[in-house]
Amino acid sequence: MSNIVERLRNSNIKPSYARIKIMEYLMEHPVHPTVEEIYQNLVREIPTLSKTTVYNTLDLFIRHNLARVITIEENETRYDADTTNHGHFKCETCGALYDFTVDEDNLATRGLGDFVVTEKHVYFKGICKKCLYNQ
User: Fold this and answer.
1) What is the pLDDT of residues 70-95, one digit of tens each?
2) Which CATH number fits domain 2-80: 1.10.10.10, 3.30.470.20, 3.40.50.261, 3.40.50.12780?
3) Average model confidence (pLDDT) for the chain?
4) What is the 3-state secondary structure (H, E, C) of the chain?
């Protein structure tokens, strides 16, 4: 937990109990949780927690580059504490999200020579190996 407190302080974020627990949850559950999943799992421990607090905390983490938003589906927003360059694969059968390594700096991008790219996201959809083998 001291690592999380230090991480928040280094980003000029006051380490409140809720913020520490939300960051801890993100780091310990790299399954790319939704706000609802984070809220449902933490409200038992923090009865005063609200979904608004979870949303606001995640927004704060994103603005300070401590978390990323993952929006593979339009109606589903997930969060990731891993802010390094990597891709995401979503299984269309079980809904699980998986990280994979990608060299984003060497992706072929034609037609962007006069643009400034501020974000890169690589998403793939398909069927994961677990679901393929269970068919």
Assistant:
1) 998 888 899 999 998 899 999 999 99
2) 1.10.10.10
3) 92
4) CHHHHHHHHHCCCCCCHHHHHHHHHHHHCCCCCCHHHHHHHHCCCCCCCCHHHHHHHHHHHHHCCCCEEEEEECCEEEEECCCCCCEEEEECCCCCEEEECCCHHHCCCCCCCCCCCCCCCCEEEECCHHHHHCC
**pLDDT tens-place string over residues 126-135:** 999 999 998 7
For the chain, the domains span: 2-80, 87-133
